[in-house]
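sorry to bug you again but im stuck and you know this stuff better than me. what follows is a protein written twice so to speak, once as letters and once as structure tokens for the fold. mainly i need to know what kind of three dimensional shape the backbone takes. anything you notice is useful, everything is just below:
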Amino acid sequence: MRPLLSGNRLIIASHNQGKVREIAELLVPFGVQVEKAADLGLPEPEETEATFAGNAALKALAAAKGAGAVALADDSGLVVPALGGDPGIYSARWAGPEKDFGKAMALVEERLAGKPDRRAYFVASLALAWPDGEVEIFEGEVHGTLVWPLRGDRGFGYDPMFVPDGYTESFGEMDPALKHAISHRARAFAKLVAAWNRT
């Protein structure tokens, strides 16, 4: 991976404020100058790829070329094997244009009705892109179980219905610092950091 020097601009290529907040917090130790794609007026491209990695790369490249700076994008979602992998790459779309994740979680629960398997996992793909088109991808997963009714009001997205393996609290109940340490995004970010430290 190309070196990323302290003080360099890094664009967070997301318009999802929950993701932006988590990614910005993970970047604090690295001393990069974080800017948000939304603040720069960069449009969010339509997610037309068939994988998390493909959509992350698409978003990161669009922001890197639009801003003329290195950009970091995340594509992530909830995968439920009992639902054939849904909502998967469509996790945000299940929340509709109003981004109502209460509605999305209710839809997951409705479709799980009567199914004994409530296992699920979150996937995060981080794409780091340069304006010349180079892209690096880093992926992480966290496995757990879906609960109902919803538990907690922390986090965002599907967090209130997901209890990670080895814990009793949902991501919606969990202290943010603990979630940051064990989440799918944190695991993908750890791989990015390992590559960063090798440069």
In short: The first helix runs from residue 17 to 27. Residues 9-198 form a domain with the Maf protein fold (CATH 3.90.950.10). The beta strands are 9-12, 33-36, 70-79, 119-129, 135-146, 162-164. The chain has a mean pLDDT of 91.
